[in-house]
Design goal:
Rossmann fold; 261 residues; globular; alpha/beta; seven-stranded mixed sheet
Length: 261
C-alpha cells in the first residue's frame, strides 16, 4: 500500500501547489510511482503540470459527486514519467454545497484514495486554502499532513487553527493522522525577516521542521507557465536543487520512520 499525504495550509500563496508538483516530480524521478490529486477548485496543480482544464471531460469533481464514475478513468499521465494526476476543475467550487447533501460526505475522497492506493508509492493531495469540506475530506483520507509555510511576517498566523483542525480530524475521523513535517518556502537569504521567520518556525515546530528550505526563485515561479516541474524546466536552478534536496531528506525520514516501526 502506498502512502497518502495532504499538502495543507489554510493560507494561500505559501507554496502548496509548488511543493505538490515538485515533490511529486522529484519522487517520480527517483523511481517512485506518484499520484497527485488536485482538490483545490483553482486547479493550479492541474494547469501547472500542463493539463488544459477546459478540455477535460471528467475530473475529481465527478468522482466525488457520482459513485458510478470509475476512478481509474479520471487518472491522467503527465509529461513526467511515473507521475500521474487526478485533475481538478472549477466545478469543485460547487462541491462544497453538493457534498453537504450526500451520505458519508467527509469520506468521499477516502473512497477514491483507498481504491487506488495499492497502485502508487505516494499519493499527494493539493488542498484548497480553506478549512471547508474539501479540506476535511483530504485530512480524513490521508496518512499524514505536510505543511508548507512561507518565510514572511505572518508565517505562523493561523498555524494554531491549522493544527487544531488536524487534531479534530484525528480525534473524530482519522485516528492515525499525523503531521509529516513543515517545509519553509520562498526564503530570501538577503533579508533579516526571512532569517527571523526560520528561527521562529523552528522554535515553534522543533524537529518536525525539515532542514531543507526552498528559496525564492524566478525559474521556480516560471515553470508552471510551461506546464512542467522545475527539474524539467531548469534542472540547474536553485529551486530545482532545493526540491531535490528536500525530496532526499523526505525519503531519509521515511526510511527512519519505517525502521522505528
Amino acid at each position: 500500500m502506498g502512502k497518502a499525504i495532504a499538502i495543507f495550509n489554510q493560507k494561500g500563496g505559501v507554496g502548496k501547489t509548488t511543493t505538490n508538483i515538485n515533490l511529486g516530480a522529484c519522487l517520480a524521478q527517483k523511481g517512485k510511482k506518484v499520484l497527485m490529486i488536485d482538490i483545490d477548485p483553482q486547479g493550479n496543480t492541474t494547469s501547472g503540470i500542463g493539463i488544459r482544464k477546459r478540455t477535460l471531460k471528467q475530473t475529481l469533481y465527478d468522482v466525488l459527486i457520482d459513485d458510478t464514475v470509475a476512478i481509474k478513468k479520471v487518472i491522467l499521465p503527465t509529461k513526467t514519467e511515473n507521475l500521474f494526476i487526478i485533475p481538478a476543475s472549477v466545478d469543485l467550487a460547487g462541491a462544497e454545497v453538493e457534498l453537504a447533501n450526500l451520505e458519508r460526505r467527509e469520506g468521499r475522497l477516502k473512497r477514491v484514495i483507498d481504491e487506488v492506493k495499492k497502485d502508487y508509492d505516494y499519493i499527494l493531495v493539493d488542498c484548497p486554502p480553506s478549512l471547508g469540506i474539501l479540506t476535511i475530506n483530504s485530512l480524513t483520507a490521508v496518512d499524514s499532513v505536510l505543511i508548507p509555510i512561507q518565510c514572511e511576517f505572518y508565517a505562523l498566523e493561523g498555524v494554531s487553527q491549522l493544527i487544531s483542525t488536524v487534531e479534530l480530524v484525528k480525534k473524530n475521523m482519522n485516528p492515525n493522522l499525523y503531521i509529516e513535517g513543515v517545509v519553509l518556502s520562498m526564503f530570501d537569504g538577503r533579508t533579516i525577516l526571512s532569517q527571523a521567520v526560520v528561527e521562529e518556525v523552528k522554535n515553534f515546530f522543533g524537529k518536525i521542521m525539515f532542514d531543507t528550505i526552498i528559496p525564492r526563485n524566478v525559474r521556480l515561479a516560471e515553470a508552471p507557465s510551461y506546464g512542467v516541474p522545475i527539474i524539467s524546466y531548469d534542472p540547474s536552478a536553485a529551486g530545482a536543487k532545493a526540491y531535490q534536496a528536500f525530496t532526499k531528506e523526505f525519503l531519509e525520514r521515511e526510511k527512519a520512520r519505517k525502521k522505528e516501526k
